[in-house]
Amino acid sequence: MSLKKSFWPAVMAVCIIGASVYMSSWDVRNEETHSPVMLSGEETISVQGKAAGAAEDPYDLENKLVGTKQVMDDGIAYKVETYQEFEIFKSEDGSTVKEIPTANFNYLRYRVEK
What we know:
- By secondary structure, the chain is α+β, with helices and mostly antiparallel strands.
- Helix content is about 20%, strand content about 40%.
- The protein has 2 domains: about 1-55, no CATH class; about 55-114, no CATH class.
- The chain is built from 1 helix and 3 strands, in the order αβββ.
- It has a 3-stranded antiparallel β-sheet with strand order 1-2-3, with no helix packed on it.
- The protein is flat, with a radius of gyration of 24 Å.
- Keywords: Membrane, Transmembrane, Transmembrane helix.
């Protein structure tokens, strides 16, 4: 009787672990380019309409603080910081050539102690 009680939880644990490993393997990305790894020789098209392998201006993505504000939620004070993502284009010597804001924002909320 105790074998049946310990068998089914073990089977369920193996199924859950197997499903989570299978689902996490869907998002395999190249560490250098942060783009999905291609499993076939197909050519992809980037958002700008250029081939992915074509020479493009290299840029880094960086989040910059663009605003802060104090808000109240259920009588508790919070400080909310707003960060916007920017494409930072740099020259070969490392100096910043241009910064282009993207539409991506991140928000951090901190509780303010009185």
